[in-house]
Amino acid sequence: MTKGHYRDQLADQHLDFRIIATETLHDGFRPFQATTLTHERLDGEGELGPLRREYLATGEAVVVIPYDPARDAIVVIRQFRIAAALVLDLAAALELPAGLVDPGEDCEAAALRELEEETGLVARAIERCYRILSSPGLTTEHATIYLAIVDTADLTDSAGKDDEHEDIRPILARVDDLIAAVDDGRIENAFLVGCAHWFARKGRARAQVLSGTLDREDDAS
């Protein structure tokens, strides 16, 4: 390995590491764990450690961009978020439908489930867009982002699961207004900010192709 190896390629890359021990510090809504390990130096000359890293062991998650092409609008949701309350004093945060993948569930099924639970909508078509590590220095959460084609004619005023104490308000936002809100710094949710920037570059074109599959299915029937 050369010293320039990690500078020359604009992509996440492999780095050898060795886990010595892992312990669970707290087993709550998200398990809080600590791992002791060593890892290869970036210059390839030896290794660092042993060192200890603490993190939330979250696992697979999904985020959905629900887009209504007839209205050129995206459904966002508003709900209470403790971190937004403590850090910004803006507890009624805007975000996208999202959640963890249940054991034995695939990511697309989880995306469809979260969309319906948090907006009351059923996707007419859905496709995977990209994946993201939400905060790799803090959590193992690995999220798959989906684009869903929806019809918001009967969008509900409220959603969420009572047994999870969810109080969710779905909101229909014109795409240009949503992107402007992100650009103006009025929204700070990382998933929503990232997805809005992605949609501004690629979303309408991807949605047009995805909607075309529905038209072909209608013609075939």
From TrEMBL:
- Spell out where the chain crosses the membrane: none
Q: SUPFAM superfamilies per the record?
A: Nudix
Query: What's a Gene Ontology MF term here?
Result: metal ion binding
GO cellular component entries:
cytosol
Provide the Nudix hydrolase domain boundaries.
Answer: 57-195
Entry cofactors: Mg(2+)
Residue ranges annotated as motif Nudix box: 99-121
Q: Which UniProt keywords apply?
A: Hydrolase, Magnesium, Metal-binding
Per its UniProt record, what InterPro entries does this chain match?
NDP_pyrophosphatase, Nudix_hydrolase, NUDIX_hydrolase-like_dom_sf, NUDIX_hydrolase_CS, NUDIX_hydrolase_dom
Stored Pfam families: NUDIX
The record's Gene3D superfamilies line, in alphabetical order, gives: Nucleoside Triphosphate Pyrophosphohydrolase (3.90.79.10)
Q: Provide the GO biological process annotations.
A: nucleoside phosphate metabolic process; ribose phosphate metabolic process
Which positions in this protein are listed as binding Mg(2+)?
Answer: A98, E114, E118, E166
Catalyses:
GDP-alpha-D-mannose + H2O = alpha-D-mannose 1-phosphate + GMP + 2 H(+)
Whom does it interact with, and what assembly results? Homodimer.
The family line of this record is: Belongs to the Nudix hydrolase family. NudK subfamily.
What's the protein called, per UniProt? GDP-mannose pyrophosphatase
The organism that produces this protein has a lineage beginning with: Bacteria, Pseudomonadati, Pseudomonadota, Alphaproteobacteria, Hyphomicrobiales
